Amino acid sequence: MRPLQIIACVKVVPKPEEVKVDTKTMTIERGEVRSEINPPDMNVLEMALTLKEQHGGKVTVIAMGPPLFEPYMRLALAMGADEAYLLSDRAFAAADTLATSYALAQGIRKIGDYDLILCGEESSDGATAQVPPGIAEWLETSQITYAEDLEVLSDSKMVKAKRELAGGYEVIQVPLPCTVSVKIGANEPRFMDMERKVWAEADGPVTVWAASDIDVEAEMIGLPGSPTIVDGLAQAESTERKREFLEGTPEEQAKVLVERLRPYL
Amino acid sequence: MTKSLYGAKEASGIWIYLEQSQGQLEGVSLELVGKARELADGRGIPIVGVLLGDQVGDLAQEAIAAGADEVRVADDPLLRQYTTDGYARVVTEIILEGKPDILLLGATPDGRDLAGRIAVRLRTGLTADCTDLKLEEKSGLLIGEVWGFGGGVIAYIKCPDNRPQMATVRAGVFAVPKPDAARKGKVVNVPVKLSEKDIKVQVLEHVVGGGVDITRAEVLVAAGRGCQGDFTLVNELASLLDGEVGWSRVPVDEGWVSRDGMIGQTGYTTRPKLAIVCGISGAFQFTVGVEKAETIVAINIDAEAPIFEAADYCIVDDMFNVLPPLIEAVKKARGGNGGR
Ligand SMILES: Cc1cc2nc3c(=O)[nH]c(=O)nc-3n(C[C@H](O)[C@H](O)[C@H](O)COP(=O)(O)OP(=O)(O)OC[C@H]3O[C@@H](n4cnc5c(N)ncnc54)[C@H](O)[C@@H]3O)c2cc1C
């Protein structure tokens, strides 16, 4: 069997419950917010590492974002990835899915060798799920979205996976190289290896690339490269709720509740 | 700026990708036709459907009855099943030929698979997973409402220069329009220039159907991790109330149930009259999928669970203690009503 060159695309996101909008300036207050690896991308790392165990090869992590992402790249190395690249440059900032998928695709081109590009199903902050097919298009690879149970048939250079559908699933097989979006919860992400963590923090191979380090056209990245713009932001209004706590034994609560719910019975 | 393959000056019309599976239109496609009709009325904007498949011509009339003025049909045995490469190619050709101003797709797995791919091919902007659409008063630009950060933030997105302005829209956020069988529209068959070697995707297995559509349920009883995989009481209560059963993501991840009834950001948006939520903590990503409910009941063993902030009636207790007497009480109340 041929070894596999696997690229794992990872994003670092603010913990959703801590994000607030400043409704005066209409900006997102990120100051105090703690970050984490986008939870669906943990499924990506797990899948990449499992495939490497099965086939041999290499897992390369790539991310685009500010320097604060760097320690999280090291967490990915501590989980078992071999090396990491961070595309970090003010010029990349405020990118929409077109500009993001372009920059990531160009970063992956620069890494060079790839059979599989694994992405998370969606990010918990942007939640567009549109970057993986975008990368696939820029790099002209095949694609499988919402995938689980990935099986690489490396001799025939194909990959087979179960793919989520509206009200069902399908099993499809496509040629490598392939860009895959891994279904959320497709696996149980492993924990970091503590010995690797020490190594990753001190000597882990994390390379930071600025825009000038990869072959990108300035007008196609970041804000200038983004055809969509944010026209406004609002804090989601939650519906006013009664929040009536029912008291007593379960029987008493049930009785009161049924009275409250009369109109629906 | 990345230039799209055609510009705003040449573009016109709201086009809708009519997703079909096994000879049936996805509900969200009809919802989009209905919404587009509403947006277009008074502005004289044509509504055009794009339909791909194998012997699916009959479905064109359904889209016309829902409000489309025209449907372009690409009918070919090679389009019998959705494949990214086959469909992206044909849809791109149809778009470049017709140059729509706006292109809407349902945010289904296939709709998103296709939208993400062709948006890059057309070098245009895509607003993903919209929960509402409007046209800007003066410019007529499409504004998509989307959730960010697990539903805590709403953003309004537009695409001023590139065409088409693309958006995917979540199922269930718009109503299905009442069909008007007398409506007349044009059906245009487009030639399909596709050969077998253009399709590299092999579909080995394809299983759909049988699932219920929770986006239309009037009563929803939902359970999460707290049910420990035992949906017996939840099912019983739902059927007593003529409702459907839904769940949070944990039961899906645990393999207890499929994704059909999953509520929330990655699941469905529901708007029942009554939602009874049992053993669900109430994470943002869940709550966004039920917050449109008229009345929410929460049953959770933990008084601090965030779900209680989103509920009208709150019961702090083990769901397995509460549901049996609740079921009895409902039976009694319904009996008193003479049942239904
Ligand atoms: C990108 C992303 C997208 C996501 N999309 C979704 C989505 O679409 N939908 C979704 O649901 N989640 C989604 N999630 C996950 C979400 O963040 C939560 O993890 C999930 O909703 C939790 O499900 P739960 O409430 O069932 O489980 P838990 O959070 O584990 O809560 C279980 C609750 O049950 C209570 N409980 C336990 N036993 C009992 C009992 N016997 N009786 C009564 N109560 C009991 C507990 O007190 C607890 O509150 C997403 C996450 C991410 C990162």
Describe this structure in words.
The complex is a heterodimer of chains A (265) and B (340). Chain A is of the alpha/beta class and 265 residues long. Chain A contains six helices and 15 strands. In chain A, the strands form three sheets. Chain A has a nine-stranded mixed β-sheet with strand order 11-10-9-12-8-1-6-7-13, sandwiched between helices. Chain A is globular, with a radius of gyration of 22 Å. The model of chain A has no long low-confidence stretch (mean pLDDT 92). In chain B, the strands form five sheets. A seven-stranded parallel β-sheet of chain B has the order 8-13-7-2-5-6-14, sandwiched between helices. A five-stranded parallel β-sheet of chain B has the order 17-16-18-19-20. Chain B has a three-stranded antiparallel β-sheet with strand order 9-10-11, with no helix packed on it. The termini of chain B are far apart. Chain B folds into two domains: 8-198, HUPs (Rossmann fold, 3-Layer(aba) Sandwich); 214-333, 3-Layer(aba) Sandwich (Rossmann fold), CATH 3.40.50.1220. Chain B is elongated and about 65 Å long. In chain B, helix 3 packs across helix 4 (109-121) and helix 5 (232-240) packs parallel to helix 8. Chain B is an alpha/beta fold and 340 residues long. The chains are: A alpha/beta (265), B alpha/beta (340). At the A-B interface, helix 3, helix 4, strand 9, strand 10 and strand 11 of A face helix 4, strand 8, strand 10, strand 11 and strand 15 of B. Strand 11 (168-175) of chain A pairs antiparallel with strand 15 of chain B. Flavin-adenine dinucleotide sits between chains B (224-226, 248-250, 262-267, 279-281, 283, 285-286, 299-302, 305, 318-320) and A (39-40, 122, 124).
